[in-house]
UniProtKB/TrEMBL annotation:
GO molecular function: methenyltetrahydrofolate cyclohydrolase activity; methylenetetrahydrofolate dehydrogenase (NADP+) activity
Natural source organism: Dichotomicrobium thermohalophilum
Enzyme Commission code: 1.5.1.5, 3.5.4.9
Function: Catalyzes the oxidation of 5,10-methylenetetrahydrofolate to 5,10-methenyltetrahydrofolate and then the hydrolysis of 5,10-methenyltetrahydrofolate to 10-formyltetrahydrofolate.
Domain Tetrahydrofolate dehydrogenase/cyclohydrolase catalytic, chain residue ranges per copy: 7-122
Catalytic activity field: (6R)-5,10-methenyltetrahydrofolate + H2O = (6R)-10-formyltetrahydrofolate + H(+); (6R)-5,10-methylene-5,6,7,8-tetrahydrofolate + NADP(+) = (6R)-5,10-methenyltetrahydrofolate + NADPH
Cellular component terms per the entry's GO annotation: cytosol
Record-given protein name: Bifunctional protein FolD
Record-annotated Tetrahydrofolate dehydrogenase/cyclohydrolase NAD(P)-binding domain positions: 141-287
Amino acid sequence: MSGAQIIDGKQVAQQVRGRVAEEVAALKRDHGVTPGLTVVLVGENPASQVYVRNKSRQTEAAGMVSTMHKLPAETSEADLLALVADLNEDPSVHGILVQLPLPEQIDETRVIEAISPAKDVDGFHPENVGRVATGAGGIAPCTPLGCVILAKTVQPDLTGMEAVIVGRSNIVGKPLAQLLLKENCTVTIAHSRTRDLPEVTRRADLLLAAVGRAEMVRGDWVKPGATVIDVGINRLEPQPGEEKGRLVGDVAFEEAREVASAITPVPGGVGPMTIACLLANTVNAARAINGLEPVAIGA
Ligand SMILES: Nc1nc(=O)c2c([nH]1)NC[C@@H]1CN(c3ccc(C(=O)N[C@@H](CCC(=O)O)C(=O)O)cc3)C=[N+]21
């Protein structure tokens, strides 16, 4: 049974961006507000530069204003905090994204906590983490939002599903658990110290891998018929004849697709959804700052 449906994240992301563009146009027309997203990049990480360029292009394509601040790798924490304070006060900026990881002289937690929660379109500020956890509004992180939207393209109602998340990061695993609870899943967060991990993952109707270890989840870790969402983006060592190593997820795709009923590819799965959801969060941040209710931008 090599029959798993491949969930096309690129296509779903394009739909989400189309919805965002409509909402941007409506916000301009009805309220004279053009949402603005600012990305702050500290240092020269080449992979980061690629994401940042994609983000800017897609932000502008949706009709929003994109600005970028590139700071040298030696930037002090005080200088970065001063920039964040300026952006917090700038009325043309509705979303602030400080690209992580930051150089080691800068305390990431301090920077995240300095971003105005209203403009924290990553959803990393503790106020947003708390609001999402309690259901009191707040901005939810982009990658978990993207995962839920992709899962719902297969199964519009996730109620009662056994969801197993592998990975307990603040950026993906933990907030994903909150969003899946809100969708009425039974949620397990497994991690590197979980006893008999394959046995735990084999219980999952919905298996979400976010550990950052290339192809760790094997085919026999997957329950037959499960939906598999692969959050990992790992670059393998270049093989002879290859210029760059291949990108692979946290799931051994060729094995898992034989067992699952639906699976996301890497690339072209969760990655494009992360950026689409960032744009959606930016529109809703601009709406909230202007006293408007959020709009639903799902699949
Ligand atoms: N404050 C902050 N927020 C982030 O959201 C954030 C961050 N820092 N630091 C870096 C990670 C990484 N990230 C990605 C987003 C999109 C793709 C993406 O679109 N990937 C494509 C293309 C991959 C490729 O070809 O290189 C795909 O998976 O198909 C990947 C990675 C956001 N991050």
